[in-house]
Design a protein that fits this description.
By secondary structure, this protein is an alpha+beta fold. About 30% of the residues lie in helices and about 30% in strands. It has helices at about 70-80, 100-115, 130-135, 170-175, 190-200, 205-215, 215-225, 250-260; strands spanning about 5-15, 20, 30-45, 50-55, 80-85, 140, 145-150, 155-160, 230-235, 240-245, 265-274. The structure holds cytidine-5'-monophosphate.
């Protein structure tokens, strides 16, 4: 085995997020089309005598280096003795699966390191873990445990986060209506324009409740909607990261450059989604 093992932890984007019901235990039933970006965090794993975690990178500030971090809990539940370096490039608590994608990357790396399967159900670490283990475009349903791969043409996005953290439980709690319609039937997604048109008719049901908690999200959506060439703007997950979609990489790059200049106080990035 070649060490250290490096694993990319891509940003998870909920292209749609329909909340279709609520279970007796309080968890919500979801119908979500999820894509993964070519921007993300990086996890580096090295065999060690005990478990440790170091967080580096431009978004490391405030990210815990102990059992409060999902990466730690993933390695602990795996029973691994490993030194983890987490290079943080994505904002935390941002609706783009930072913590879940990092933990899934740790689990994928440990599978390789130990040549063994994950000895527990990843959903025990969070509803986004199953889709992040797959790390490719998928339809997610149930409370997150049902994941079906979807062939999606490459989409071009601008991601923007106003650097406010949004606590997921509070957003679900602020959602007034739990039984909303699911996505309309998924088409064959032959090309990106067809996908963009279909996506325009879908929703993120958590957008409105997240805006009540963090009104700046409405401003992010507004700024994204002003970008030339955007087809749709939407929030990802429970926020606060929002995205705009474009049909060419050039349009997304130009828009991202403009947004980075006009809103240099926000985190933003151009990203390819697949
Ligand atoms: O599973 P995860 O830790 O990501 O979920 C955070 C919180 O979001 C849960 O404690 C729950 O309040 C809410 N949630 C939910 N229904 C889901 C996923 C998350 O109500 N399907």
């Amino acid at each position: 085995m070649k060490t250290p093992i490096e694993v990319f932890a891509p940003a998870k984007i909920n292209l749609t997020l329909h909340v279709t019901g609520q279970r007796a235990d309080g968890y919500h039933l979801l119908d979500s089309l999820v894509g993964f970006a070519d921007v993300g965090d990086r996890v580096i794993l090295e065999p060690a005598s005990r478990l440790s975690l170091r967080v580096t990178g431009q978004m490391a500030e405030g990210v815990p280096e102990d059992e409060r971090n999902l990466c730690w809990r993933a390695a602990q539940a795996f029973g691994a003795r490993v030194a983890i370096t987490l290079e943080k490039h994505l904002p935390a608590a941002a609706g783009i699966g930072g913590g879940s994608s990092d933990a899934a990357a740790v689990l994928r790396g440990l599978q390789q390191m130990y040549d063994a399967p994950v000895p527990f159900d990843p959903i025990e670490l969070g509803a986004d873990l199953p889709v992040c283990m797959l790390a490719r475009a998928a339809r997610m349903s149930g409370v997150g445990e049902q994941v079906a791969p979807v062939d999606l043409p490459q989409l071009h996005a601008v991601l923007a986060n106003p650097r406010v953290a949004v606590p997921t439980p509070a957003v679900f709690k602020a959602l007034p209506k739990k039984n909303n319609p699911p996505m309309t039937a998924l088409p064959a997604f032959a090309n990106s324009r067809g996908s963009l048109r279909w996506l325009q008719d879908q929703r993120n049901d958590l957008e409105a409740p997240a805006i009540t908690l963090q009104p700046v999200i409405a401003e992010v959506l507004k700024q994204l909607s002003f970008l030339e060439g955007q087809w749709l703007t939407r929030m990802s997950g429970s926020g606060a990261t929002c995205f705009a979609l474009f049909d060419t990489e050039e349009a997304a790059q130009d828009a991202a450059e403009l947004l980075a200049m006009t809103r240099s106080d926000w985190w933003s990035a151009a990203a390819r989604l697949s």
